[in-house]
Amino acid sequence: MRASAVLVAYLIGAVPIGWMVARAFGVPDIRRHGSGTIGATNVLRTLGRRAAIATLLGDVLKGYLAVFTAAALSGGDPIVTAAATVAAVVGNCWSVFLGFRGGKGVATGLGALLWIVPWATLAALPVFVAVVATTRYVSLASLLAAACVPLVAVMRYPSPSAIAALAVAAIIAARHHANIARLRAGTEPRLGHRPDNHSPA
């Protein structure tokens, strides 16, 4: 049951919300546009606010649902719940439904972490908002907010939960490697910039 609970979390996390939303808005494959990912930021730059909000909410919800379901299946086992948190984000980033391609794990990670380390996650949200408001770099805000979660989690939550938060932050950082390079080079697009189909996002 433990392994199956984690697998269920992965499969829920792997549901390609952004890809599905984009198809509903008339774009057959969002991966052929912008950054090539299925996340809300790329959807925003390609299709606008309504599609991006739908993607964001869907990704957050599936992350939360993935961990909630795994916890229910395992009787609340803390190790299984922690593993499911990571599995949900892995599913979003490397979706079996999209040939193991996907998003960058931010919104799905938000939903998953809201279940397992809610106060640490909520504490990181002002960081995200402040960085976006001052710099308009969504990638930088995502990285800094993700880094804040395990710092708070280690002080408030059991070790499995804190380790899961650290693992999610590491995955998000790894998925943003190209963004980090562009931030250092000063070429990262800011929020509100809508590049053509070959521009990074």
Explain what this protein looks like in three dimensions:
- The protein has ten helices and no strands.
- The relative contact order is 0.14.
- It has one domain.
- The chain is globular and about 45 Å long.
- It is mainly alpha-helical.
Short description:
The protein is mainly alpha-helical and 201 residues long.
Helices and strands, in order, run as HHHHHHHHHH
- Uncertain parts: 196-201
* End-to-end distance: 39 Å
Range of strand content: under 5%
Radius of gyration: 16 Å
Q: Tally the helices.
A: 10
The beta-strand count equals 0
Largest sheet, strands/sense/barrel: none
Global geometry: globular
Layout: helices, strands, pairs:
Elements: H1 2-14, H2 17-24, H3 40-47, H4 49-73, H5 78-93, H6 106-116, H7 118-135, H8 138-156, H9 159-175, H10 177-185
